[in-house]
Amino acid sequence: MDFLGASEGLNAKAQNRGLLQAVDDFAADAQLDKSERQNVRQQVYAYCNEQLQAGEEIELESLSKELAGVSEKSFQEFTAEQGYELEESFPADRSTLRQLTKFAGSGGGLTINLRRHAAGRTRILGSRH
């Protein structure tokens, strides 16, 4: 595209997917238990959703400050050291970020959507007549 004098645009969905993976890996690296990992995911979602509602981009430096105290190293340092190709700031993608708080699956004609904190618990489903 350079020959047209244009550059390739930022892929917001890819950046958001990379962010989700980095958040999960960051929590795992910090050896957080399931509840603590969920709290980190909720913090990230709250920050990103706030940015989305304000029409602002997700900024790694600001997000890193939100996650201060989770680990000895900052989230921004972690992503740089681990080679995540995240931009310093990028647009929030609502559908991708929803995965921080929701779990969805489907198969055999059945679709299930759960809040992430409810996943892994035993559920008994019955038919209603």
UniProtKB/TrEMBL annotation:
<dbReference type="GO" id="GO:0003690">
    <property type="term" value="F:double-stranded DNA binding"/>
</dbReference>
<dbReference type="GO" id="GO:0003727">
    <property type="term" value="F:single-stranded RNA binding"/>
</dbReference>
<comment type="similarity">
    <text>Belongs to the YejK family.</text>
</comment>
<dbReference type="Pfam" id="PF04245">
    <property type="entry name" value="NA37"/>
</dbReference>
<dbReference type="GO" id="GO:0043590">
    <property type="term" value="C:bacterial nucleoid"/>
</dbReference>
<protein>
    <submittedName>
        <fullName>Nucleoid-associated protein NdpA</fullName>
    </submittedName>
</protein>
<keyword id="KW-0963">Cytoplasm</keyword>
<dbReference type="InterPro" id="IPR007358">
    <property type="entry name" value="Nucleoid_associated_NdpA"/>
</dbReference>
